[in-house]
Amino acid sequence: MLKNVCRQDDVKLFGAPMEDTLSFRPGTRFAPQKIRAILPYLEYTTIFGNVTKPLCDLGDVELLQGAPAENVARIERFIQRVDPPFIMVGGEHTATLAALNAVRPDTYVHIDAHFDLRDQWPPGQKLSHATFARRAHEKLGFYAIYIGVRAYDDEEYKYAEEADFYVLQGSDFTRGDVADAVSTASGRVYLSLDIDVLDPSEAPGVGTPEAGGLTYRKLEYLLADLILTLRPVAVDIMEYSPPNDVSDVTAVKVVRLIMHIAAMLQ
Length: 266
Ligand SMILES: [Mn+2]
What we know:
Elements: E1 12-16, H1 31-38, E2 45-46, E3 49-50, E4 56-60, H2 68-79, E5 86-90, H3 95-103, E6 107-111, H4 132-140, E7 143-149, H5 154-162, E8 166-169, H6 175-182, E9 189-194, H7 216-230, E10 234-238, H8 249-265
Parallel strand pairs: 1-4, 1-5, 5-10, 6-7, 6-9, 7-8, 9-10
Antiparallel strand pairs: 2-3
Helix pairs in contact: 2-3, 3-4, 6-7, 7-8
């Protein structure tokens, strides 16, 4: 059904306003509606690249409240009816598990201040925003490239090492470092962006802020280097939290990134 709403080569946009697990500040469920409110007001032609076709908006996945496993299943079923390329807007990062289940990439690129590789978080909970990447890897066995990670538990770092993931830590890496990381990728690629990879001074509107992050301009170059070389089948932007934003400073970055990504995917 959804396949008939857009043309096959359109870049599709949809919201996954899932927010059933969180560690710190709530609000990611409001991201898709906030993004849609701002999207009409930003220019489509910029010095950094043009979006030549409007995004094809498929609306939001209908979700329950407080049922993470059911919501991951609903998002997965939704994505199975969407032809790539698409951009998913979170919601909590756990929704990326649904996208990985549906897309089944060979290489998963995770841009985030965090690994999201805990076995349980909070203790006793196997499925959450802090564990979803581990659940996905246990099931799907992809190769992963981590970029921007700067806050984690030893357990997560050990898991990433044992899984032979490529990890570019912190925010001081160069474009050459990114090229080295890219050279290890192969096959079908899925790219996930947690907006908390940005420094909280530039992007306060997140649920789990961590000091010492990327600048917005560095993230733009990073995404261009990754997307233009790896040609991911789909991309997501997760964890934007409007109630924690200040004067839309995070919102305008999220919307601009969506347009950059759409321009590169089309
Ligand atoms: Mn994060």
